[in-house]
Specification:
By secondary structure, the chain is α+β, with helices and mostly antiparallel strands.
Length: 599
Amino acid sequence: MPKIHVMTDSLASQVAAGEVVERPASVAKELIENSIDSGARRIDLEVEKGGVSLIKVTDDGCGMSQDDALLAIERHATSKLFKASDLDSLSTYGFRGEALPSVASVSRFRLSTCEKEALAGTEIIVEGGELLNVSECGAATGTQIEVRDLFYNIPARRKFLKTQATEFGHIEEVVRLAAIVQPGIAFTLHHDSREVHRLAGSTQQINRISDLVGVDVIDHLIEFKGCSNHSDLAVYGWVSEPGFSRRNRKMQYFFLNGRPIDTSAISSALKDAYTGFVDRGAFPSAFIFINADPADVDVNVHPAKREVRFRNHRHVQELVAEAVQKAITSRFSVNLPDVKPSKKNLISTEQFSTGLPDSPARILAHKNNIDSEACSLDKEQIIELDWSGPQSVEPILDVDIPSENDPSQRVIGLLDQRYIIVEGADGLVLLHKRAAHERILYEEWMRVVHDQGCPSQSLLAPVTVELSAKECEIVLSNTEILSKMGLRIELFGGTTIKVDSLPASCGDVDPVVFLNSVVSALSESGLASAKRLSESDIVAIVSSRASRYNESTGIHELNALVRRLKACDMPYCDTRGRPTMVQFSFRELERRFNATPAN
């Protein structure tokens, strides 16, 4: 008797279903994509008990004839592919011809469909892969598919499903993805007779995104666009402001030619674009759409079709990173004059911000819920500054400053030793000294660390610090880049390390306190990820720990700090996306005092 035999069609379909139908959300995804391919303008989804009891999808697409409906439940039957070369020009969601037969093989399956102007529709009933009935029926134009008792004949698979709430959460995410990329289609979603979504069709993608994530998120999104000069590649979408981040990637959505995808190339591009703008462990929100020549991508990698391969993934990654970073910097950039030590080159509110309602500093102030302590002038004492004294130029903290006789543009004092008060023709600007110093250190160090490294200051006497075994391994894994930063460390014995120099910009900080703060920051993400920290990650960590309030209140030093901040590529936020400055226009001050210019 031969050992090898051909599987029955039913068994083969159940085996194939293992890849295509992982959970109820997989069924919802395949049925929704078929509805989209049919030209539907409305798709209704009903779910019961997390999709295990029922998943019903109804659309108003083109419908099918009886012959086509019967072929649709046969394995490898498709209307999308006719020859191998068609794989290079795919414009539809489905093409493998596996979804419906796989679903029908592991459920109690019912399909009813009707073509436009047909006298009658067709109803097909399949149970566990076995065709039970084919008949005519009355039906509206389009298709309705019911999938009941999913995995009833494969109890092992059903046993590994999660709770109903978890499984429905995955289904809701499928609907969310389809709705975002297809804003012109109206969607409804019901779970156990409860309406979860009712989304009207829209011509604007951002309107659909707003319906799903809320206006609170939309208010913090920045639009971007980019295209390649060498191919048909184009990217566009929306990303969040630097100060508006999350602790996970759940608000990051990527689409390729209208298809939701998961790809490390885009995730890496997004990370590169936000380097120095968000804290480590924080993630921006993103809705990124990529249009590419189908011949330059391979979507036939996995039956779920979420994994794709780009012919030139590096080019895609660079284009996305460049477009996103350009949008971020342009959103918070204003026309600042060249930074030169000149008595005419004066720090003013106008130079920091246009003074218009949507100026970058004002946006940061209102959209990041600035600490009320920074906005309450009546609770703090303003320190008047002495404008006299010798002046010098950078890189020392002394620069030429304007004459005190120019009342329209000047630094006028300090608030609580933490905020520099700058008066301008349109109002005043508060600069957060420590945040500004952090941004300055980060950008200045990033410019030199690749080449000669940062200057260091030797300690009069080396200090030793006892660390845990985990902390010691983290530090030793990053000694090369820490040394470039001017923090020279070596193993002293056991888990004790010796420090003989600090970054020159650290001033007179306590070396033990400073080192412990750096080690703590490195340890926050755990040992494995700390070993993989990039150069920019290390620079951001050290600059955040080295930044300080600069106890000196000399006017020349404050002007120098402001001037150095102006020279930064992104002066409006620190490395964690928090604002460095807040603007208060005269208009806003008058409103708060219920006054008018005449009063």
